[in-house]
Every structure is written in structure tokens, then in C-alpha cells.
Amino acid sequence: MLLDVLLFYCLTTLKEFTMLKNKKTYYQLILDKSGSMHDCVNTTINGFNEQMQMIRSLKKKYPKQEFVVSLTTFNQEVHFDINQENPDNIKELTTSNNFHDYKKNENRISYLPNGMTALYDAVGMSVNNILKFANEEINNDQATVVVVIITDGHENASVKYTYRQIQSMIKELELSDNWTFSYLSNTPDAVDYAMGMNIKKENAIRYSKATMKEDYDDIKLSMKSYFDSKENNIKKKEFIKSRRK
To answer: pLDDT category, 244, cuts 50, 70, 90?
Structure first.
């Protein structure tokens, strides 16, 4: 009788231990669409579309997990192009906004770089949008948030948020196991700039436009590693896995 009770207890404990507790992930990409991104349009479009393919494949691989995707693009304005969507419903990026191509591209999002760089507004508005939708889930340890920022220049156009506000916002959220921020930039001070905003050094990369495809490949590798770990109830704070680190 005692052995039966102990066996039942052990099996119950094992089941609870292996059960996926925090199964939802909000993946938020914040993507520069200012004029200086013009010379890497095709690489950026292909990189984003391949990321979405990767997330869809991971969704099939891990049916117990839930994936919610958002895409914010920014120049001097901030655009919520994809807002809290199931990966199966994600539209692809395209370079065309030609009216005559409407039928062909009605299920795609136009990515045509121009204008300036409202980086702080994009980060602040994206984070607050997530909090509006998911704050309770995050606080109850039911969801994690992965924020990936990709830019090629410095802030020069924000009107809603300042550097200090973004710095404070990221510092507070990074204290939680359920938030992680990554920063990829083309500027020489990319890593130092990210650290100044309280993004972990391990999650900051200075990329080169000449090898940008490899950086997007690293993001896909990072996604796989993150969701592989989450399947085992491990919430990784180091998101970026770069083969060049």
C-alpha cells in the first residue's frame, strides 16, 4: 500500500515537472524602415519571411507552445504592420505598393524604406502595445516576450519617447525572466549603445550589410534554440546565438 502511494506521488510529481507551464511566447520584431535601409531591402524582406517560415515550422514541432507574432516598422512614423497574430496568418513582406499589383500583393506588406529614424518611439510603442494585450499573462508566468530590434542608424526623429524613458523601460522589464531584448545595428557603437539602453551585451550585435543574410540566419538559429529550451521549461535570457561571437 505504501509503495503504491509513493509510486503515485512520484508519477504525479514527474508529470507536474514535465508539464509545460509557460507555453506562450510573444515574438516582437521592431524593424527599421528609414531611407538608409534602402540598400538592403531584399535581404531584409527575405530575412523576415524566412523567420516567419521558421516560426511556423516550430509551431508544428511544438504543438503545446503558443506563438504570437508582431511586426513594427518605423521611419519617422511607427507602423504596427502585424499586431498579435497567429503565425499561420502572417503576411509576407514585399517591395511593391503599386496599385496595379494589388491583386498580386493583397496578402503582403509593403516594405519601402524612406524617411528618418524614430527608434525610441518604435520601441516604446511596441512594448506598451504588448503590455496592453499580455501584461496579466506575463505577470502570471503564462507568457514570455522576445523583442528583437533591427536598425542601421541612430535615433533622430522620436517625439513620444526619450532615450531615458526607453532605458528605464528596458531596465525594468529585463529584471523579469519573462522578457528579453536583442539589438542588431550597423553602427560602430552598436553593442555599447545597446548596453546603454540596458540590453544585455550577449544580445547585441553589430552587423554588416555585406553579411546581413548570415545575421538573419543567426536569428532563425536563435529562435530554434529559444523554443527548444522553452519546451523543457527553460526561459533563456540570452536569445542571440551568433556563429561569429
So the answer is: low
State the Cα–Cα distance between residues 112 and 38, nearest whole angstrom: 8
Cα separation, 184 vs 207, whole angstroms: 6
Q: Please give the class, per CATH, of domain 28-231.
A: alpha beta
Cell of residue 112, nine digits = 519601402
Q: Model pTM?
A: 0.90
Output the CA torsion 219→34→159→30 (10° steps): -20
Question: What does the alpha-carbon distance between residue 18 and residue 142 come to, in Å, rounded to a whole number?
Answer: 15
Residue 242 cell numbers, joined: 551568433
